[in-house]
Write a structure and sequence with these properties.
40% of the residues lie in helices and 19% in strands. With 401 residues, it is α/β, with parallel strands linked by helices. It is an enzyme of class 1 (oxidoreductase).
Length: 401
């Protein structure tokens, strides 16, 4: 690998203001350009995020961050780990990186024209090669440790409605072998062919049960769509078109948002909406391990109609003295029972429950919509929690930072 010279590092850093101004324009053009030359790659990318602009904006932020930290790549370590796990879950391989690099540099030329000179382009070519090698090396280790390569056929052994919006799918290997192990908090990619788009589409779903070898369970929220967001292609196909006995194709478990099972210190699991799924896996695993750790399960949703795993959580709390729960309903229904279905009305406010969740040496695991996670992280930090003890998970094209 060719090393960046001091002049090339300076040239890359000098493009930071340009990327701040034109980054999204460049990345939108990049995707359009790449898909025109390689339409087969549409199978690897969430086309809904392409159409909404979320994916180009995310890539623009990533390119900007890389340029800004080109002389301090250690600062990108957590982001590299998270992105590499997503890539490995989607089966992105070394041969894809030259294609991306060629069209990313081509998009820079197409958008900026004479505003970027050849030495700067040469510097970016070397910088991209450096970044690609980092990802290829990181992903090679993930593939080496994976339970299988690519997408493997699984049968839907059971389908269970958890709430008005969330349904669980119990997946067993189609060849009859045992389900693989995984770390609680990890996810798999499930791919389905979307007629409307004419391509396969992968989506990532957290595993929502303990790793016990019987099945892999995913619990999927049906995305009905809103004024600012289209309906979810794959979630609707799973809810309406996938029944028990159906074969789906699944990637090996990936993800670095995982419970540290070696610790004995307290755990606070915090979720919003469908973010409850990795938390049920973490809690189920602690129970299966016979852990005596103090656990507080904090969940926020709209009301009981969309409160997945409600009965399971209540029964689990009742039978485990080391487990406590705190539930917030934002819009309480007439039949919702305080103290049984929920504990507080309104949005989750960590300051309101500080006496229940601020525990010495506790680790805090948070999953939910990005604004929800930001609010909980900022609230915990304001209450004196060390940032190193706050762990968050992000799907799609969001970012907590």
């Amino acid at each position: 690998m060719t090393a960046l010279t001091a002049d090339q590092i300076a040239r890359v850093k000098a493009t930071v203001p340009v990327l701040a101004e034109h980054g999204t324009t460049i990345t939108k053009h990049f995707y359009k350009r790449m898909f025109a030359h390689h339409p087969e790659l549409k199978n690897l990318f969430n086309q809904t995020h392409q159409q909404s602009g979320n994916q180009p904006e995310t890539l623009a932020r990533a390119v900007y961050a890389y340029a800004a930290n080109i002389d301090n790549l250690g600062a990108l370590g957590p982001a590299v780990s998270r992105i590499a796990n997503k890539h490995a879950s989607l089966n992105i391989r070394p041969e894809h990186y030259p294609i991306v690099g060629r069209h990313l540099l081509g998009a820079i030329v197409d958008v900026l024209g004479d505003a970027v000179d050849q030495p700067t382009l040469d510097a970016w070519e070397v910088a991209y090669g450096q970044l690609a090698n980092i990802f290829v090396g990181t992903e090679a280790k993930l593939y080496q440790g994976a339970a299988w390569s690519g997408f493997r056929p699984f049968k839907v052994a059971r389908k269970h409605v958890e709430s008005d919006e969330i349904t669980s799918f119990y997946l067993t290997p189609a060849d009859g072998t045992a389900a693989c192990g995984f770390e609680p908090g990890q996810y798999v990619s499930v791919t389905r062919f979307v007629d409307k788009l004419g391509v396969d589409q992968p989506r990532q779903y957290s595993l929502s049960d303990a790793p016990h070898g019987k099945w892999l369970r995913i619990s999927v929220k049906r995305e009905d769509g809103r004024e600012d967001a289209a309906p979810g292609h794959v979630s609707n196909l799973l809810h309406a078109g996938v029944e028990e006995g159906t074969i789906v194709h699944v990637s090996a478990p990936m993800g670095d948002f995982t419970l540290d099972r070696k610790k004995t210190t307290p755990v606070v699991l915090m979720s919003g909406g469908v973010g409850v799924t990795p938390m049920t896996s973490m809690l189920s695993t602690l129970l299966a391990d016979g852990s005596e750790r103090s656990v507080t399960f904090v969940h926020a949703c709209r009301n009981s109609r969309v409160h997945a795993f409600r009965e399971w959580l209540n029964e689990t709390v009742a039978s485990h003295p080391n487990l406590k729960r705190v539930v917030f309903y934002e819009a309480v229904d007439a039949g919702d029972r305080k103290g049984i279905d929920y504990d507080f009305e309104g949005r989750l406010d960590v300051a309101q429950i500080a006496d229940r969740i601020i525990v010495p040496d506790a680790d805090y695991y948070i999953c939910g919509p990005v604004p929800f996670m930001r609010a909980q992280r900022d609230g915990l930090t304001a209450l004196g929690v060390d940032a190193a003890r706050i762990h968050t998970e992000v799907f799609g094209s969001g970012a907590v930072e």
